[in-house]
Amino acid sequence: MQLNEAFNIIEKNLNDVNNELGFKKTAQSDNSVSFSGEKGIYRMVFDEETSILSFECAYEDLGEKTEFNTTSRSLFELDNIDERDARSAANEARDEIVHLFGVKKKADLEKIKMPKAVSRTKAKNGAISYDVDSLANRFGALYPEYKDEIKMNIAQYGEFLPETFFIEHGNKKVLDIIKNGTDAEQKRLFKMLGEIFEDGTNEVQDIIGVTILGEMKNDKEMMAVADKYMTEYMAGPVHEINKITAKNNRFTKKLANPPAYKPKKNKKFSVANALNQQ
Question: Which of 234, 216, 135, 231 is nearest to 178 (CA)?
Fold first, then answer.
């Protein structure tokens, strides 16, 4: 299927929701199609290299200065899809449009509370494990400039989605500190990640090991920095994961287009489980 044909099918299947919410098509290029209205702007963007179709949006249409947020991604292999797949992509886009623009007011971030962290004492005693909310809380405390992005993530999805936040925002900070940060900055980062990993749920271990530190992709310089500060408990899985994420394979394809996450109750960390969950 040609991309423009797929876009035409998607546009046709979005007519009703676009008319209801006042959106009109404003632009179409070789790899994207955009719709704008009083409530904001959204677009579908196709990446030919990865075969990923992304849904991006903003509450204000500022032309070339518009700052888009990516709220969903899906695998969209043009050689293997048909009209049914294009309609399915339209249905996913409709869900995003209704969720983001179907309310009259934008989310008031001042009224959204940061996720709560499990207490260090309880985590160390084994009474309760660190979870993804704890990771969000500790990350926001360490890097306050990301608190609004964490709250926006919660506003968009009704809960904190760690994969989306770190892939779109948090990993940029993490990788920059690993590459360019001072010794003190690097130590603080890995101390926080190490504490949560060691006493965390299977889910939060997967996020730290695969979604975050897996993005080092076995880069020698970054791995050397990580090895200075990682605990032995975390270092083993992180090294195994990076051997895999450094390559182009079915696991990295899953990471580029993760399905909805279903956390395991099992406390024991498993590299295979972590990769299969992403």
Answer: 216
Residue 61, CA atoms < 13 Å, CB-side half-sphere: 15
Phi/psi-derived region of residue 218, left when phi > 0, alpha when psi is between -120 and 50, beta in every other case: left
Q: CA-CA distance, 259 to 182, in Å (whole number)?
A: 35
Mean pLDDT by 10 residues, the chain (278 residues): 92 92 92 92 93 91 88 90 91 88 63 90 90 96 93 86 92 96 96 95 94 94 96 93 81 53 43 53
Determine the pLDDT at residue 45.
95
Token pair listed for 176? 């920059």
Contact 100, 75 (CB under 8 A): no
| Distance from C-alpha of 94 to C-alpha of 51, rounded to nearest angstrom | 20
Burial class, 258, CB count within 10 angstroms (exposed 0-12 / middle 13-18 / buried 19+):
middle
Q: Is 140 exposed, middle or buried (0-12, 13-18, 19+ CB in 10 A)?
A: buried
Predicted TM-score (pTM) of this structure: 0.58
Cβ(7)–Cβ(41) below 8 Å: no
Q: Which two tokens stand for residue 103?
A: 């309310």
> Do residues 116 and 40 lie in contact, with contact meaning Cβ atoms separated by under 8 Å?
no
Q: Supply the DSSP string of 50-72, one letter for each residue.
A: TTEEEEEEESS--GGG---EEEE
Which of 178, 173, 182, 200 is closest to 190 using CA atoms?
178
Pick the closest to residue 138 from 111, 170, 108, 184 (CA basis).
Answer: 170
Residue 110 sits at φ, ψ, to 5 deg, of: -65, -25
H runs (alpha helix) in the chain: 3-13, 15-21, 83-101, 120-125, 132-142, 147-157, 162-165, 171-180, 183-198, 202-206, 220-229, 232-245, 250-256, 271-277
Residue 263's pLDDT is what?
37
